[in-house]
Amino acid sequence: MADIQHGGFKRVWFITGASRGIGALIAEAALADGNAVVAAGRNVGAIVERLGISPGLLPIALDVTDEAQAKAAVRAAEEKFGRIDVLINNAGFGLMGAVEESADKDVRHMYDTNVFGLLNVTRAVLPTMRANRSGHVINISSIGGYRGAAGFGVYSSTKFAVEGITEAMHDELKPLGIHATVVEPGYFRTDFLDGSSLVVAPDVIDDYDATSGAVRRIAAQLNHKQPGDPTKLAAAMVALVGAPNPPLRLPLGTDTLAAIAAKNDHVTRETEAWKDLSASTDFPA
After folding, report:
1. Are 40 and 60 in contact (CB under 8 A)?
2. Which of 42, 47, 195, 208 sees the fewest Cβ atoms within 10 Å?
3. Which of 142, 156, 159, 208 is catalytic?
4. 135 phi/psi in degrees, rounded to 5
5. Catalytic residue at 134?
6. Which of 145, 157, 23 is nearest to 89 (CA)?
7. Does 240 fall in a domain?
8. Domain encompassing residue 193
9. Is 222 within a domain?
10. Active site (annotated) includes residue 159
11. Model-level pTM?
12. pLDDT for 3-58, tens place per residue?
């Protein structure tokens, strides 16, 4: 997206989940880069405490699972700044446990936020982007959005959904001058593995001790020791928005790059091994 000034600001960013963690860091980086920021989250007080007060900042209350509230937040942003150039769908949380261990209420709550909440905000923002024939929708996925793993299966399924949504939007929005990118962070040193961002399935099934159980133990040891620097992630978002030809998919972190390479290699080898059976299902030519 070209650097076009709007009301003295480079662009207007709308960021969900902006009260803490990666969302707050992205908001800080965008403000420092000369952008206006609509910082949306459940706790407006926490947003103001973290980001302060400035002409380029609009803190706004938003529960992404409430479609009417999402529409109201977008209207407030348009009234304040006149447009929205960048949407960062960052709000979400995780669920750790084997698929069988994951309670229905926790799964549904996570889908309401990670998938349906993302759709609520995206549908609210897209009309202004379509009217301007410009914009950039950035959906925060995960290393788990490219490959599922024991202990994070249901969480990964929400991020797989985000990846599929973004791929389709990339094709739908490109003719309208709007970019769509899915960002896949690996393990970054945030509070994601804390109770504030991660639900741990309370039911433990002994048969999964060597798989999801091992993941629970590793996560406890990894917390706040993750290899990724979240400040650099925020800087990468500014670079991504400034790129003239942004990618559909942006992995962040060497762990994500390694996971993608390993999955691609596995898929290639497995497809080759089973290609005769795969091809046998067509009608005769």
Report:
1. yes
2. 195
3. 159
4. 145, 175
5. no
6. 23
7. yes
8. 12-253
9. yes
10. yes
11. 0.92
12. 444 568 999 999 999 998 899 999 999 999 999 999 999 999 999 999 999 999 99
